[in-house]
Design a protein that fits this description.
The complex is a heterodimer of chains A (514) and B (564). With 514 residues, chain A is mostly beta strands. Chain A has a 4-stranded antiparallel beta sheet. In chain A, strands 5-6-7-8 form a 4-stranded antiparallel beta sheet, with no helix packed on it. In chain A, strand 15 and strand 16 form a beta hairpin. The longest helix of chain A is centred in the N-terminal third of the chain and has 11 residues, at 3-13. With 564 residues, chain B is mainly beta. Helices cover 5% and strands 43% of the residues of chain B. The chains are: A mainly beta (514), B mainly beta (564). At the A-B interface, strand 16 and strand 20 of A face strand 40, strand 45 and helix 5 of B.
Chain lengths: 514, 564
């Protein structure tokens, strides 16, 4: 369907018969999520999930989902939709690419769903800020969650009975079968195969002070759960003792003597890190420490930084990077070898680095050089020269400040940069609203090791970027859905494909009164 | 002999909180006698007249001092809630959380066990991985036994709140009591409870036998015969109360041995019970005589001394007592029990020590030791004082009575202790902030905190300066080859434990995250020691002094809240 036809249909809808209320308002759309290498948007207004195949080999699908949908979550095999009326709450399990839908009755119209990495389980939980679903009681127990066995289509509701208000997130162990339900002052470890086996770890000091989790990470082998909490300089290490018949836990507080201002934690990847968590402290000049999960402080490694850092980034291979959005200081660290190197970026970065392929990319809104001022990008990587660790930088000049960014699984960086629409090859069709601004969108791709640059100019400005199945996608501003697909490798205008109006395409048979 | 004014710091401490505030504490596990309580020298504060001071002390410059014009020696105050160790576990109470953490030092595995409300007193059952706990607010006594797999808890109600417990050496009895100056529950002065631990452990508790023992109890222990507890014994303000365990039911009132009036002021006396409970020695600043209570004979004996005892100590076999007579510069060496009847079983030796502040005339001056610290093997005693400035101590050979002064220290002594082999001594120093040493480096040394490790055989001392970080406590590991000193500077948040190799006297510092509270060693032959530290949820570190491995368990108080 051409863009003009789609717009025409949409406009025509306003003139047809008696309109339902849903046509009086802007559709509430959630997404996209990447599910089975396809993009899925949930149109909550009309209870339809719109599915687009980035490769274009499959036609767009509009799939009916449950009434009053609340949230969508991707799974390895498709996606889930939670919601339903309060008196008939449901979970839709949709597989892709066939679009087959199964509906499971659950205990509540949940606001959030988290799916285990292996796709076997989902944990459904409430958002305390969301109202109860229509048709049900005007109250709900936010301590209630439901564990869904997606293979068996069974749901087990659990009342956690904690002192916390509601779960804030669910984190799955790298080892299948265990999830940590993170609450405001409690962590509940659940055996997903047997949800009745669970253990509550109250993060409450004897004086009544609740420790509010800010960051929760599993150890690579799932034996420990690391928690960074508000206002504490200790990293909480929760031992996870899961057996077929029971699950237990014990708490330890990990510390680095004299360090204060814990700002970030990370679990380094690479051999030898199974019992380690890295912690970054911003107090007293800046310190990073590698802490033993069992509390063996003789195994601690540390590095003193010349400037405080805020962000700890795992570059893989046993290497970590420390940086700050407030300064140009950047430091590399190979903790198990007690080697480090520090340097300064050419300018302050606009945010945390994007990481891929062992490189960290920092975006600079403004870099001053002898030739003038421009936006810039710095690729940072760490090199082991045999005797010491060296931090290397590769600066790149950008034609504008990125409005969006993404990293694909191979480490290729994608940047969405506004450029002038004229003389850039953008189609004249783009000279609508964006043309009045004289801007359109472009996508720049940067390969991680070679820093080879590619990209294309789009026909509209970019709202967000992402990748799915080897394709990049750029969304554009449109209430009816507007997205451009392109291959990450060899991105060009010739290989790009724009799909717009796809949200309207499946609204035609929705909500009309004869 | 030139007598010296005590240093300002010592006076200030003595006037304020004599026994609790100043300097470092002594490791009781390696240096102190066994038995619960001890009493002595507590409650001494500022004064305006002699009547403001405990019996035997006089008011001088608004401070209570002994007859030699010096403040009483500063002794370890003792605490109730320090962790207790059995052969395989550390038992750490969490009164605020109504729980106890049972920590395996080998694996750091923590089991948190819920207890009756406000557990407060704990004693390990000798030779077992078990502990007896009294819950103050919960009015319960509990028996907790643990093995590698699980812990079992048995509790029974008590008729009143008891804050302390003593356990018999055979593990069959517990004595619930209220140590002075704790306020007795319901105003029931001196009431104690005897618990049959075997029945409690079996889950079939027998009724607790309560008896009245007088008032202001300072010591509670058991008398043993052939390894079997035969009497529960309580030293009260005015008398010794003996409860025969075999006839508890038919003995409504304890057998009493009255104390002479010059031993009844609990604030100025010290009582030490022998490990087998057969004898209690009592000293008081109000008497020149050493009191000896023969528990089995239910009799009191006076042993006349040439001066006023300022400290006393008993060897772990209970056969030798050392009595320090500071005011006359002598030390009494008593063979027990012969000394009760044979004057020849008492030997007095002179033990003057070189003083450090000799005034502007530079003349020779001495100080007298006021305290004795025994080696665990009972072969030696280190004699020293902290009531006056001195860099010297003397080693008393308990077998020969020979005194050997040691003058190789570079700083003033606050406290000291001898290691398990009797050959190594650790002295914790106190700084001399007013040092005027011409050598700037020596002035820095004088003004710094620090401690020394001394090889007594070689006569070699190694000073370790800790700058502004005061040494807090030392502990000898049971392997005899290592020791640890905890260090704490709260103002600058510097906390550490120093690892000492007693063969080489080389030290290394291991950082701690927060203020160390207590430190202790494990029984057996292990280089492992534990250090508890400040943390709202509990923190304990296990330090392997042979490898410098520090493993820390923090937040064990939270573990009791973990639930299915």
């Amino acid at each position: 369907m051409s863009r003009w036809i789609a717009l025409g249909v949409a406009v025509a809808l306003w003139g047809c018969g008696t309109r339902s209320n849903r046509w009086e308002q802007t559709p509430v759309v959630v997404g996209p999520v990447v599910a089975s290498n396809e993009l899925v948007w949930l149109n909550r207004t009309v209870s339809v999930a719109e599915v687009l195949d980035p490769s274009g080999q499959r036609a767009p699908m509009g799939l009916d989902v449950l009434e009053l949908p609340r949230a969508i979550a991707a799974s390895p095999n498709g996606f889930l939709v939670t919601g339903g009326r309060g008196d008939a709450p449901l979970l839709d399990v949709v597989s892709l690419p066939d679009g087959a839908r199964r509906t499971i009755s659950v205990a509540g119209a949940y606001d959030k769903a988290a799916v285990s990495p292996d796709g076997r389980f989902a944990v459904l939980f409430y958002d305390p800020a969301a109202p109860p679903a229509p048709g049900g009681p005007a109250a709900r127990n936010n301590n209630e969650i439901t564990v869904v066995d997606l293979g068996a289509s069974t749901a087990a509701a659990l009342s956690l009975n904690t002192e916390s208000v509601a779960p804030s997130s669910v984190v799955f162990s790298p080892q299948p079968g265990v999830a940590a339900v993170v609450m405001d002052g409690t962590v509940v470890l659940v055996e997903l195969d047997r949800p009745e086996l669970r253990v509550q770890v109250p993060l409450k000091l004897p004086d009544g002070t609740l420790l509010h989790p800010q960051q929760v990470l599993f150890a690579p082998d799932g034996k420990y759960l690391y928690v960074r909490t508000v206002g504490s300089d200790d990293v909480l290490s929760l031992e996870v003792d899961a057996t077929p018949t029971r699950i237990g836990s014990a708490v330890n507080f990990l510390f680095f003597p004299g360090a204060s201002g814990l700002t970030d934690i990370a679990v380094p990847s690479g051999p030898g890190f199974d019992r380690y968590v890295a912690a970054l402290y911003s107090g007293t000049g800046g310190t990073a420490a590698l802490l033993d999960a069992t509390g063996d402080t003789s195994r601690t490694h540390s590095v003193k930084l010349s400037a405080p850092a805020q962000t700890l980034t795992d570059l893989g291979g046993g290497k970590l990077l420390m940086s700050s959005p407030r300064s140009t200081a950047v430091a590399g660290w190979e903790p198990l070898l007690d080697r480090s190197d520090e340097d300064a970026l050419p300018a302050i970065a606009s945010g945390d680095p994007l990481v891929g392929g062992g490189h960290a990319f920092f975006v600079h809104p403004s870099v001053t050089t002898s030739a003038g001022t421009s936006a810039g990008l710095t690729g940072v990587y760490l090199v082991d020269d045999g005797s010491r660790l060296q931090l290397k930088q590769n600066p790149l000049v950008l034609g504008g400040t990125p409005a969006a960014s993404a990293i694909d699984p191979t480490g290729t960086l994608l940047l969405g940069i506004p450029v002038a629409s004229t003389d850039n090859g953008a189609a004249p069709i783009a000279s609508g609203v964006s043309g009045q601004r004289g801007e359109t969108g472009s996508v720049v791709t940067v390969k991680p090791e070679s820093l080879a640059i590619g990209g294309l100019v789009l026909d509209d400005t970019v709202v967000s970027l992402g990748t799915a199945g080897g394709f990049g996608f750029a969304t554009h501003a449109s209430p009816l859905g507007d997205v451009t697909f392109f291959p990450v490798d060899g991105a060009s205008r010739a290989s790009a494909r724009r799909v717009y109006g796809f949200l309207a395409g499946h609204m035609l048979d929705q909500g009309e009164t004869p | 002999m030139l007598r010296l004014q005590p240093p300002a710091r010592a006076l200030g401490c003595a006037a304020a909180v004599l026994l609790a505030a100043c300097g470092a504490s002594l490791n009781k596990s390696s240096a102190g006698p066994s038995g619960s309580g001890g009493g002595g020298d507590h409650g001494v504060g500022a004064c305006f007249q002699d009547s403001d001071c405990p019996a035997g002390l006089v008011c001088k410059a608004q401070a209570c001092v002994a007859s030699d014009g010096l403040p009483p020696e500063q002794k370890d105050p003792g605490v109730f809630q320090e962790p207790k160790t059995s052969q395989n576990f550390v038992f750490a109470l969490s009164p605020d959380n109504d729980s106890i953490a049972v920590i395996d030092p080998a694996t750091l595995a923590i089991r948190s066990i819920d207890l009756p409300h406000e557990p407060f007193g704990i004693e390990v059952v000798p030779g077992q991985d078990a502990a007896v706990i009294v819950a103050r607010a919960g009015r319960m006594v509990s028996y907790l036994a643990c093995d590698a797999r699980a812990c079992t808890l048995q509790s029974q109600a008590t008729a009143r709140h008891y804050p302390a417990v003593a356990v018999s050496g055979d593990g069959k009895w517990a004595l619930l009591w209220t140590p002075d100056p704790a306020i007795p529950d319901q105003g029931a002065e001196g009431v104690v409870g005897v618990v049959d631990l075997q029945k409690l452990a079996a889950g079939t508790p027998a009724a607790i036998v309560e008896r009245a023992t007088g008032r202001r109890n300072t010591n509670a222990f058991f008398r043993m015969e052939q390894g079997v507890a035969v009497d529960a014994v309580v030293l009260a303000e005015d008398d010794l109360a003996v409860l025969p365990l075999a006839d508890l039911g038919s003995t409504p009132l304890p057998l009493q041995v009255a104390l002479p009036s010059d031993y009844t002021a609990v604030a100025s006396r010290q009582a030490v019970a022998a490990p087998d409970g057969a004898m209690v020695l009592v000293r008081s600043y109000a008497s020149h005589d050493l009191g000896a209570l023969d528990v089995s004979a239910r009799s009191f004996h006076r042993l006349t001394m040439p001066g006023t005892p300022s400290d006393l100590a008993l060897t772990q076999d209970g056969h030798t007592a050392v009595v320090v007579l500071r005011d006359v510069g002598q030390v009494g060496l008593l063979s027990l029990p012969a000394a009760l009847t044979d004057p020849n079983a008492v030997q007095f030796v002179n033990a003057p020590l070189p003083a450090d502040l000799c005034g502007s005339d530079g003349g020779t001056c001495t100080v007298f030791p006021g305290q004795a610290s025994l080696s665990p093997d009972g072969r030696r005693a280190a004699l020293f004082t902290n009531a006056e400035a001195s860099k010297s101590f003397a080693v008393l050979d308990l077998a020969t009575g020979q005194v050997a002064p040691f003058t190789g220290l570079d700083k003033w002594i606050q406290t000291l202790g001898i290691g398990p082999d009797g050959n190594t001594l650790i002295a914790l120093h106190r700084p001399n902030p007013a040092s005027t040493a011409a050598d700037s480096y020596q002035r820095m040394v004088d003004q710094s905190e620090g401690y020394s490790v001394v090889d007594l055989t070689a006569g070699f001392a190694q000073l370790k300066l800790t700058q502004k970080v005061p040494p807090q406590q030392f502990v000898f590991a049971s392997d005899g080859a290592h020791a640890a000193v905890t260090l704490s500077d709260t103002a600058h948040a510097v906390f550490a434990v120093d690892d000492i190799d007693l063969q080489t006297l080389v030290t290394s510092s291991l950082a701690l995250a927060s203020r160390p509270q207590y430190a202790g060693a494990f029984a057996g032959d292990t280089p492992l020691v534990w250090v508890t530290q400040d943390h709202p949820a509990g923190r304990i570190s296990f330090v392997d002094l042979s490898t410098e491995q520090v493993r820390t368990a923090t937040g064990y108080a939270l573990n009791s809240g973990i639930s299915p």
